[in-house]
Amino acid sequence: MASESLRPRSRKVKILATLGPVSSSPDMVRTLMQLGADAFRINMSHGEQAQKAELVQSIRALEKELKRPTTILFDLQGPKLRVGNFKGGSADLVKGEQLVLDGDTALGNSRRVELPHPELFESIGVGDRVLIDDGKVRLKVLEAGERRIVTEIQVGGRVSDHKGVNVPGVVVPIPALTEKDRADLIFALDQKADWIALSFVQRPEDVAEARSLIGDKAALMAKIEKPAAIDRLSEIIELSDGVMVARGDLGVELPPEDVPPLQNRIVACARQFGKPVVVATQMLESMISSPSPTRAEVTDVATAIYDGADVVMLSAESAAGQYPCESVQMMDRIASSVERDQVYEARIHFTQTELEATTADALAGSARQIARTISAKAMVCYTSSGSTARRIARERPSVPILAMTSSQAAARRLGLLWGVHAVHTRDVASFEEMVAKAKRMALRHHIAEGGDRLVLMAGVPFGTTGSTNVIHVVQLIGDELEGYSRPEA
Fold this sequence. Notes:
Number of domains: 3
Radius of gyration: 24 Å
CATH topology of the largest domain: TIM Barrel
Strand content: 15-25%
Shape: elongated
CATH class of the largest domain: Alpha Beta
Distance between the termini: 18 Å
Structural class: alpha/beta
């Protein structure tokens, strides 16, 4: 089983599976990975830290067993804006009537309710919209004061205690990290998380604050879920290591028809920066309770892959649904089918990525063209930080990318990068050793066979971050692994 597990996926897009109540056992984690999950998301919005520590142990044990770097993303909850409590636990809000939101802690009713967020009173103005319970109830602000907001109920319905509040188009002056998030962040870093997903990002300063706390202990992913973030998208992506298109929250604050073009824009912008981009939320939503997705959901997943996303994500489908295994299998089959499509390569290059005026970028672009011209079987790179692999992946080559690194942290973080199969291995000391090891690893990991050609990229002197300056083409000899069977550290 261990040797079989070393085979890279035949597809290039990655699958990020959320772990939860139905997928928390070591056996289920192993099964999901064998069925196609490339990385695992741990959602800090639910459950206790002790439970999350057990998940990490299961994943790391699996990594050791299968000798394959495995990626863990911790998703921080972020601020949650909510109404207060109602007398009797709920109230029916009637269209056309008025509802007052205030700072009074008294139990609410159909005419008023507490809004326990002083920051909102400072930000909301006349004409703004207030959404309750994921937009099921919609209010329009008629009067706005320091401690009292009068609204007209435009779409009514029953609202119960602590339902969520959204204020589209308003930059809320609260930090993206709550006290709970800070505690969860310390815990995640103690658990050696590979990626941290930051919720409620509205501006670049939110990312900068998180970066100052994380340092280089983990990669930072900004979740684009607030419309305010779109206005400063490039700045946010530049400060992040990757981004997530959190379509569920975007779809609450924006008209549904605005989400698809925004998704396309975010993916394209991340591609320009060479940062991995995850498309998330409700991708196979019906598979929470059904063994098969709708055709619309299949098309939705396929569209994200055609757009060039690095990762597609499963949320409740794999965390709490009735068919977690089938959901991963379906995602894998959709991705594989799309990548077999003859127009796939042309579609993902519809977004043109401009090379920066650096040696590393110039070599990455040239290496992709060389691989295509000589029909190479794969591209191989040596990388200490992962930056060389990211540059190559941004070019979306038609062949797999074998990334070798002496950094276990870098190998794990590369699990969210399109087309990359990462290998944690000892460093090399010479050009000859580099070539020999590249050949062995390509054969051992079933990337290539005897007679195939590889395009190698590396930096000389070895082990120097940012020194990529070599392209080398080699041809494999079939018996190069003959007599060598011991796995290499």
